[in-house]
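It is worth pausing here to work through a concrete case rather than discussing structure prediction in the abstract. The textbook approach is simple: state the sequence, then state the predicted structure, then interpret. We follow exactly that order.
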Amino acid sequence: MSHSELPFGRRNWILFGASLAVIGLGYVLLSIPPADGFLSLTAAPILLVGGYCVLLPAAILVRDTEVAATTVGVDKDAASA
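Step two, the predicted structure:
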């Protein structure tokens, strides 16, 4: 059995954490009592759509340069030159 590392780098995990924070904040704002207020009617859906449709896919699709360099087999110094 060969040892395989995850294809995600530091940038991917930061974007994933940011997407979870934005989605969580969206749900918190959605639960604020006046259902016809700005936060629950406008800001919360914008945060939820941004978290689910922008940040979460970006966290999956963005390639980290050091992970891409080691995956291809190129030396990190040669990839940055």
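Step three, interpretation. DSSP finds four helices and no strands in the chain. Residues 38-61 form the longest helix (24 residues).
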